[in-house]
Amino acid sequence: MSPEDRRREVKEAAIVPPPPGSVADLFQEALPDVEFTATQGVLDVILIIGRDDAPPVLEAAKNHPKLAFDFLRNLSGVDYEDAGMEVVYHLFSYKHRHNVTVRAKMPADDLHIKTATGLWAAADWHEREAAEMFGITFDGHPNPVPLLLPEDMLDHHPLRKDNPLAPLEVWQGTMLGPEMARAGYIPPGSGFEVQAEEEGEE
Amino acid sequence: MAVEHEFETIDLNVNIGPQHPATHGVFRMVMTIDGELVVDVVPHIGYLHRGAEKLSENLDYRQAIGIQDRTDYLGGFNCELCYVQAVEKLAGLTPPERAEYIRVILAEFNRITSHFMFLGAFGTDLGIFGTAFTYAFREREYIQDLFEEVSGDRMMYAYFRPGGLAWDVPDNFKDRVRWLTKQAMVGFGDLDKLLTDNEIFIARTRDIGKISAEDAIDYGMTGPMLRASGVKYDLRKDEPYSIYDRFDFDVPVGRHGDCYDRYLVRLEEVRQSVRIIEQAVEQMPDSGPFLPEKMPRALRPAPGEVYMRCENPRGEYGIYLIARGQTQPYRLRIRSACFCNLGALRKMTVGHYIADAVTILGSTDIVLGEVDR
Asked: Can you tell me the distance from the alpha carbon of A39 to that of A45, in angstroms, rounded to the nearest whole number?
């Protein structure tokens, strides 16, 4: 295994069951029919669900009196390449002062999920950003137009893992020295990967 | 919103920005107006989008610190603090005591300079040309000198590191800080005297851009914007990070959720930040390390994810960091405070006069570098 491969080797986090009495138990109580994997993150409890379960879970998270997550902290897309994509919701409840992270998985060949704009107005801009950056379609979004990118930039989605940096940026990294080029991602076929391998690991 | 007229009128589209002094950066809003009343606002952002998230994914964990300064460039220390804490949480690093105190002092000074910037610029938005800016920038300049002496830069500091600091502070740091807290209160007093009871200022800001607590929460507004609407929520108090649980300070809350309350909340936050700094400089150890004894040469945090949130001058700044055992972040999402605050612009502006739209935009205190990332 070359040093570059070792640097880019992917490892997955282990599933740690959250302690009893956590938010995950409240979700299980509110939604007995929905299957989800709960894991204890560094700060919050993380629920991993399928894309089709996302609408009932988010609906309950907002409206169930014991959950009452009225604040959508953050919404982001994550590209796991062959394993599909995820839309991650970070929620907080001002009433009960508890947090939860909901990760909704979807297959790479069918990037559709129902919009959360009906539950939180904050989801509007976040979803527009995730849609343009990852190519995820949020079904039922009231205004699905690009937000940060130009209106005509529809052919590629910058934050996908298969969308490399521009050759200019790779070149700039090389100009700043081999250290900088090594730390950055070097697209295969650009001619720079040979140089990085030769230097090896210190 | 329909307005009754005796004569027939047509709605007019007015384009403000991207290059316009009232938009505080490259921001464009297209307003539909009926006479002088604003009927609709469509904000256009993205002129300063530099792909901070994509760039961070292609950089080493330490190299990505520099990108944090360039998101919210008026609160660089606060953004760095959030990022390095996210990395520390995953890498299992604990910064030494002295480094924690220095970080808090610098982050609170950065909050003061950012709020001074708001107070000066907000005064200019309302036509108090020069005076507010001069008062605010006099004190701000003294604090910038400290930042320059500590980090070597006035704006893009890149001074915090996962685990501590890049290097130690100068020898006279404590004396400088004590002098600066007094100086910051001079600026606070001057601005308070100039603006708080100013009749024109109150007439221009009272009951303008009102938003209720429920709407503010629904739109994901945070920071002084949320607290002006009456929600007492401050991450430093409610989810204490770093060493904020050691200090005694108050969280100012408004009642009406209008532009005047947002001004008052920010003004009072300057005083509370000074209180925190005064306590921190007394508790801070005189000497000690600024990095943990055992620092790995290559940072490779364990696989996992964390959503670290910090109370920035503009609200909740969040770093969603996913590590998968590599030397680079697998995914780094920046939750920007003013991005969410700006999302409620339409809700706040519709129904007001076109001159008040400038006031409302000024009161959101946006930094376009953070909105567009």
From this structure: 6
Report the candidate in B23, B22, B59, B15 with the shortest Cα–Cα distance to residue B41: B15
> Dmax of chain A from CA atoms?
60
What are the structural domains, with CATH classification, of chain A? 9-139 (3.30.460.80), 167-199 (no CATH)
Residue linked to tokens 């995914």: B331
For strands B315-323 and B304-312, give the pairing.
Answer: antiparallel
Token digits of residue B108: 């609170």
Distance CA A110, CA A142 (A): 21
ipTM above 0.95, yes or no: no
Domains of chain B are 49-347 (1.10.645.10)
Contacting residues of B for A180, CB less than 8 Å apart? 63
Residues of chain A with a CB closer than 8 angstroms to some CB in chain B = 7-14, 41-44, 46, 70-74, 76, 78-79, 88, 90, 94, 97, 101, 120-122, 124-125, 133, 146-150, 158-159, 165, 180, 183-185
Q: Are strands A45-50 and A37-40 parallel, antiparallel or unpaired?
A: antiparallel
Which tens digit of pLDDT belongs to each residue from B172-188?
Answer: 899 989 999 998 888 88
Of the candidates B92, B120, B20, B57, the one whose C-alpha atom is nearest the C-alpha of residue B319 is B57
Task: Retrieve residue A120's tokens.
Answer: 């939180």
> Which pTM was predicted?
0.86
Report which residue type is found at B337.
A
